[in-house]
Design a protein that fits this description.
- With about 250 residues, the chain is α/β, with parallel strands linked by helices.
- The chain folds into 2 domains: about 150 residues, 3-Layer(aba) Sandwich (Alpha/beta knot), CATH 3.40.1280; about 60 residues, Trp Operon Repressor, Chain A (Orthogonal Bundle), CATH 1.10.1270.
- The chain has 8 helices and 9 strands.
- The strands form 3 sheets. A 5-stranded parallel beta sheet has the order 2-1-6-5-7, with helices on both faces. Strands 3-4 form a two-stranded antiparallel sheet.
- Helix 6 crosses helix 7.
- It starts with a strand and ends with a helix.
- Bound molecules: S-adenosyl-L-homocysteine (SAH).
- S-adenosyl-L-homocysteine (SAH) binds next to strand 5 and helix 5.
- The site of S-adenosyl-L-homocysteine has 19 residues, from strand 5 and helix 5.
């Protein structure tokens, strides 16, 4: 079945944009996934077709109106009753690989893209919409965030990636960053590919990669280790033990 994405946006011409190329573009052409845009402005009722208004309480910028958005959202919910409806928002649940995987195994997704200062809060109270954030920074609109989410989902759909296993060993799938990669030439600017990778000993290579993944995650993203528990921690060295007891 086709994985179907419906995007509610003021800028439908932005789509498929980057998702029309490479893996996602090919999969779109092959019908592995489909993309439909809904122009939010079509649901405005006044003669200026306005979708936003000044913020209650004052302040800079404009806020997207709940009544206009609700009409657009209701139409999508009615047509796609089984699919989750998300709204891109810096105040949302942080997007991670677990959420991406859950979405990719479902029927598809509806995505509401915000603009201006954001969306009238009452919309989130009144409709089953899940706010999702792509990171702790502020974009000018939800469309680029939607590209990120869709790209991450589409590459997991059956038939999109070449090797069926290549999605399983990657960063975050095991709660760790991935091990480093190397390819020819063997020597470049005096730097050689680690010998173990040329040994042909698959067990040794797997062990090296696992150790590297743990080491790099501890170094670069200790928060991931914290979140996934101590099971993946190598036994702490003397220095680390001291550090840890100092913290206590
Ligand atoms: N004033 C808001 C930011 C609005 S940015 C605040 O400070 O929270 C305008 C739109 O861009 C948002 O409605 C949302 O759809 C999108 N956006 C901005 N940053 C985002 C992020 N980190 N993740 C997902 N969407 C984001």
């Amino acid at each position: 079945m086709t994985w179907a994405a419906t995007i509610l946006t003021l800028y439908p011409d932005m789509f498929p944009g980057p998702l029309g190329h490479s893996l996602a573009g090919r999969a779109l052409a092959e019908g592995i996934w489909s993309l439909e845009t809904v122009q939010i402005r079509d649901f405005a009722t006044d003669k200026h077709r306005s979708v936003d208004d000044t913020p209650a309480g004052g302040g800079a910028g404009m806020v997207m109106r709940a009544d206009v958005l609700a009409r657009a959202v209701d139409q999508v919910l009615e047509r796609r009753p089984g699919a989750p409806l998300l709204a891109m928002s810096p105040r949302g649940r942080p997007l991670d690989q677990a959420l991406v995987r859950a979405l990719a195994t479902g029927p598809g997704v509806g995505i509401l893209c915000g603009r201006f200062e954001g969306i009238d809060e009452r919309l989130f109270e009144a409709r089953p919409i899940v706010p999702v954030s792509v990171g702790d920074y502020v974009l000018s609109g939800g469309e680029t965030a939607a590209f990120v989410l869709l790209d991450a989902c589409v590459r997991l759909l059956p038939g999109v990636m070449g090797a069926p296993t290549s999605g399983e060993e990657e960063s975050f799938e095991s709660g760790l960053l991935e091990y480093p990669h190397y390819t020819r030439p063997y020597e470049w600017e005096g730097r050689r590919i680690p010998e173990v990778l040329r040994s042909g000993d698959h067990a040794k290579i797997a062990a090296w990669r696992k150790a590297k993944a743990v080491e790099e995650t501890r170094l670069r993203r200790p928060d991931l280790i914290e979140r996934h528990g101590d099971a993946r921690r190598p036994p702490p060295s003397g220095a680390q033990r001291e550090e840890e007891s100092e913290r206590k």
